[in-house]
Design goal:
Layout: H1 3-12, H2 30-36, H3 42-50, H4 55-58, E1 64-69, H5 86-100, E2 103-108, H6 114-122, E3 130-133, H7 140-151, E4 156-158, H8 159-178, E5 188-191, H9 195-207, E6 214-218, E7 221-222, H10 225-229, H11 249-253, E8 258-261, H12 270-274, E9 281-284, H13 294-299, E10 306-309, H14 324-333, H15 341-354, H16 361-366, H17 387-403, H18 412-421, H19 425-439, E11 443-446, H20 452-464, E12 468-472, H21 475-484, E13 492-494, H22 502-512, H23 519-528, H24 530-539, E14 545-548, H25 554-564, E15 575-581, E16 586-590, H26 600-616, E17 623-626, H27 637-651, E18 659-663, H28 665-669, H29 671-677, E19 689-691, H30 695-708, E20 712-719, E21 725-727, H31 734-749
Parallel strand pairs: 1-2, 1-3, 3-4, 5-6, 5-8, 8-9, 9-10, 11-12, 11-14, 12-13, 14-21, 16-19, 17-18, 17-19
Antiparallel strand pairs: 6-7, 15-16, 15-20
Helix pairs in contact: 5-14, 6-7, 8-9, 8-15, 14-17, 15-17, 17-18, 18-19, 19-31, 20-31, 22-23, 23-24, 24-25, 26-27
Length: about 750
């Protein structure tokens, strides 16, 4: 099947289209319905009648954008009309929701008259928190946007104009820096003089490029003063008329530092590129065929050609989805009256800054595992980089507040955390721990310190003030890798191959001499096994916590810290716990990694350790010991162990959280079963700590919940150790290392 056939099937598959309306409040009972509609709805209606701003509190207005079009200039399709443009507008709504959690109604008006269009859109102001104008032909789009901005007290934004301007502006900020050129000295030539080109030219002026350094060309050549005097230019292009009588694109490109293509494919030759200034910047953004092919532009010269296109199959895709969802998110959340120039600049600058940061592993994988590092081939972030939401959006909101466009003030630190929580419950939960860690950072030794991920994680830990990382490994190798990665930090390194570590050898020998270890073997382990080295470092209080396991199988990574650090004074057993986060629920699963066939003593101890861990995430524990039996419905050796463990816990005066069992998993998680069928149970609410009867069940159970239940998993977190130790899973990402380091720091704070 062709792409077109697949797209038709995709859109017509029941239910037809790409969007639906979902309720956000319960509608299960008669009372729910009386609150949602008559008679209860009268109360908020009357409040809004007294104060229109109450609509933001009682309705979805504050998170609702209208995507509005007449279908007169649909990208790549032209004037196809309002009805035919609807799939595009629905698609725009999908992007708003996917990237910024903004709800959308798409509205298609069958208007050719710009004034009629304006009247229709303006009349919808009570419905929406913002208006995104889409696919409207020039020059009517300028007139429509200006009229609506003047008339409406909510943000109005024509993405076809400003989106490309903002995203390419971010790319230009970084490209100029890489090319070692000042914005104020750049000579910029535009191929194209339509809505996107003129809006982009205006935006570049606001970034600092002199107006007189910008030349626009259309199909008839350079926009000149003589053409303006002859009435050939509209009022939006006329300000860029130059004092030349004639000239075409080829003339305008000669000597230019920057070429911005917003026209048609294939009109720029290699010879034109060769005529540009040293280290030229070329943004060839015509789609699907750029003004000059990526390969042709790169091969045209011997020096550096910094290239961007509108295509996803080449580096530096100028994609508007990097802009409009996050700009509207920030504008809506401060209830802005407009999206002004300050907010657009803030978005461009934040995108440019984000491109200079280390790229998450998940983003690298999503784009084919190729290197993504700030430079000529990586000027702007990728659309799937989730950090755009909580890096760009607060910058837009801050600019709105500082420029006077906001009607609501936001604490930016709290707002950033709120945005991060929109990405999933795990983000919200980890932010609790990372904030705690940052209040009193501890020394965390990273046993596999030469690994690229460990070095990147160490850099992030330092930058965010979460921990004081110590990398174990060869100093030269670590410094070389850090330099290759472009990381600007001075790592703390413990090199087992250099320095005086005899006291580490003595300590290890003392701990293991009656376990068959000779002093010679101890010296070999300290010098040659980073897990033993790191374990001794923690045991001797030269570090507060330890992370390992990234390149080792779990049992082999766990063995050295168990031998040297051991379990806590009040613990006989360690256990591995996963935190699973669902949309509205958090569950801790134990034991998933350590104890193969625990007895009742192990189960009871693991329950207490897991409850302590839950409290470090500000979760008040409610524990259930699981089985295939409910409270004695089956009696055998397997069901007896969790039942006896519960009796131990009930008799323990130090247990100050509700715990019960043995019980089946659905009994533990379904409130009606607990409160109705088993009203005697100690749990009044569903359990959030699930203790599995053995390792097999625990490992299978958490993975089923993760994969089929759509949960995000954080862990495994090792509990019961004398000092904080966490063993990563092989292949974990940098964010997993940072998260577990944060947990380790909070563990160490409690020591």
């Amino acid at each position: 099947m062709t792409l077109e056939d697949d797209a038709r099937d995709y859109h017509r598959r029941p239910p037809a289209g790409k969007v639906e309306i979902a309720t956000t409040k319960p509608t299960n009972t008669q009372r729910d319905l009386s609150l949602a509609y008559s008679p209860g709805v009268a109360a908020p209606c009357l409040d809004i009648a007294d104060d229109e701003n109450a609509a933001y509190e009682y309705t979805a207005k504050g998170n609702l954008v209208g995507v509005v079009s007449n279908g007169s200039a649909v990208l790549g399709l032209g004037d196809i009309g309002a009805q035919a443009s609807k799939p595009v507008m629905e698609g725009k709504g999908v992007l708003f929701k996917r990237f910024a959690d903004i709800d959308v109604f798409d509205v298609e008006f069958d208007h050719d008259d710009p004034q009629a269009f304006v009247e229709s859109v303006a009349a919808m102001e009570p419905t929406f928190g913002g208006i995104n104008l889409e696919d409207i032909r020039a020059p009517e789009c300028f007139e429509i946007e200006e009229s609506l901005r003047d008339r409406m007290d909510i943000p109005v934004f024509h993405d076809d104009q400003h989106g490309t301007a903002i995203i390419s502006g971010a790319a230009l900020l970084n490209a100029a820096d890489i090319a070692d050129k000042e914005l104020s000295s750049l000579n910029v030539t535009f191929s194209g003089a339509g809505a996107a080109a003129t809006a982009t030219a205006r935006f570049y002026v606001s970034l600092g490029i002199p107006h007189e350094n910008i030349t626009l060309c259309d199909i008839d050549g350079v926009l000149s003063e003589s053409r303006a005097e002859a009435g050939e230019l509209d009022e939006y292009a006329e300000p860029f008329a130059r004092g030349v009588d004639d000239g075409d694109l080829e003339d305008a490109i000669e000597g230019a530092d920057v070429l911005v293509g917003l026209s048609v494919g294939g009109i720029v030759s290699r010879e034109m590129v060769r005529s540009m200034a040293d280290n030229p910047i070329i943004f060839a953004m015509a789609n699907p065929e750029p003004e000059i092919a990526y390969e042709d532009a790169k091969e045209a010269r011997e020096d550096t050609v910094i290239m961007a296109t509108g295509r996803s199959d080449y580096p530096n895709q100028v994609n508007n989805v990097l802009g409009f969802p996050f700009i509207f998110r920030g504008a809506l959340d401060v209830r802005a009256t407009e999206i002004n120039e300050e907010m657009k600049r803030a978005a461009a600058e934040a995108l440019a800054n984000l491109a200079r940061q280390d790229v998450p592993d998940a983003v690298v994988k999503a784009y084919g595992d190729g290197p993504l590092q700030f430079g000529p081939d990586y000027l702007i972030p990728k659309p799937l980089d989730q950090r755009v939401l909580y890096e760009v959006t607060p910058a837009v909101a801050e600019a709105a507040m500082e420029s006077g466009a906001a009607r609501r003030e936001r604490d930016l630190d709290a707002y950033r955390e709120e945005l991060e929580a929109r990405l999933g419950k795990s983000r919200e939960m980890m932010r609790v721990v990372l904030n705690k860690a940052a209040t009193n950072p501890k020394r965390v030794v990273l046993a596999e310190g030469e690994d690229e991920k460990m070095i990147r994680a160490a850099s992030q830990l330092v930058e965010e003030g979460i921990a004081e990382p110590i990398l174990v490994g060869r100093t030269k190798e670590i410094l070389r890798t850090a330099e290759e990665l472009g990381l600007d930090f001075d790592p703390t390194i413990a090199d087992p191959e250099s320095g005086e570590w005899n006291h580490y050898v003595d300590h290890l020998y003392e701990r293991r001499q009656r376990k068959g270890l000779t002093r010679t073997e101890a010296a070999e382990l300290v010098r040659g096994d980073s897990n033993y080295f790191a374990s001794v470092m923690v045991s001797m209080d030269d570090a507060d916590a330890m992370l390992t396991g990234l390149t080792h199988h779990y049992p082999s990574a766990l063995r050295p810290p168990l031998q040297i650090i051991g379990t806590a004074d009040d613990a006989d057993y360690a256990a591995g716990v996963y935190m699973l986060t669902f949309r509205n629920r958090v569950i801790f699963c134990a034991d998933a990694t350590v104890n193969l066939d625990p007895d009742e003593n192990v189960l009871a101890e693991v329950t207490k350790h897991t409850a302590e861990l839950a409290r470090r995430f500000n979760v008040e524990p409610r524990a259930a010991l699981l089985s295939y039996s409910d409270f004695g419905s089956v009696t055998n050796e397997g069901t007896r162990k969790p039942r006896d463990a519960v009796e131990q816990l009930h008799a323990d005066p130090d247990v100050d959280f509700p715990v019960d069992g043995e019980m089946q998993a659905d009994t533990a998680l379904v409130e009606e079963m607990l409160t109705d069928t088993y009203d005697f149970a100690e749990l009044d609410d569903p359990a959030n700590v699930l203790v599995f009867p053995n390792l097999e069940a625990g490992n299978i159970g958490y993975k089923l919940l993760q994969r089929l239940g759509g949960a995000e998993a954080i862990g495994p977190m090792l509990v019961g150790m004398d000092k904080p130790v966490h063993v990563l899973q092989r292949g974990d990402e940098v964010k997993d290392i940072v998260n577990l380091a944060g947990v380790a720091v909070v563990d160490a704070q409690a020591e």
